[in-house]
Design goal:
Layout lengths: L12 H10 L12 H7 L2 H8 L19 E4 L5 E4 L3 E2 L7 E2 L8 E6 L6 E6 L5 E6 L9 E4 L4 E4 L2
Antiparallel strand pairs: 1-2, 1-9, 3-4, 4-8, 5-6, 6-7, 7-8
The structure holds zinc ion.
Zinc ion binds next to loops.
């Protein structure tokens, strides 16, 4: 099963768990900066979310209701993360996607905070915090990527 525009097999929940347990795919490159360099490069909100793993308020974030065409890149490093055609309305209050743009765009870590086991999603190039992924998304892959708007930049088609 492939999604239009994607040349790779669908990422599934078992793949996410395998990456979180045993290690993530190699990124195309890595961007490592000091916290002061990140602070100079990012807006205060982007810094709190990408580097401090903060969560934006539900519905009060830039891309929650945006369905413009194009691609979403990482606000920290520009890495392509999600295609707009995989964005869907999840009634969660945050931008939600069903698939990443590529197999090595994201990294996955178990997150045991908030008294529940979740899987945190980060940019695989700069390790910036994006949000989390869960297994309650739509068919066919069943994934729901719940992503902070502040972690994203929308770029044209
Ligand atoms: Zn990044």
């Amino acid at each position: 099963m492939k999604i239009k525009g994607f040349g790779l097999p669908l990422l599934r929940w078992r793949d996410v768990l395998t990456y979180a347990r045993y290690g993530n795919p190699e990124p195309t490159c890595r961007l490592v900066l000091s916290e002061s360099d990140w602070a100079a490069r990012l807006t205060p909100l982007q810094f709190r979310v990408l580097r401090g793993a903060a969560t934006e308020p539900a519905y009060r974030n830039e891309f929650c209701r945006s369905y413009a065409p194009g691609c979403y890149g990482c606000a920290g490093c520009g890495q392509l993360l999600f295609a707009a055609e995989t964005k869907y309305h999840a009634i969660s209050g945050w931008p939600s996607f069903t698939q990443p743009a590529s197999r090595n765009a994201l990294s996955f870590q178990f997150d045991d905070s908030h008294q529940m086991q979740r899987v945190e999603v980060r940019c695989n190039v700069c390790a910036g915090h994006l949000g989390n992924v869960s297994a309650d998304g739509p068919a066919p892959a069943g994934l729901r990527f719940c992503i902070n708007s502040a972690s994203l930049v929308l770029v044209g088609e």
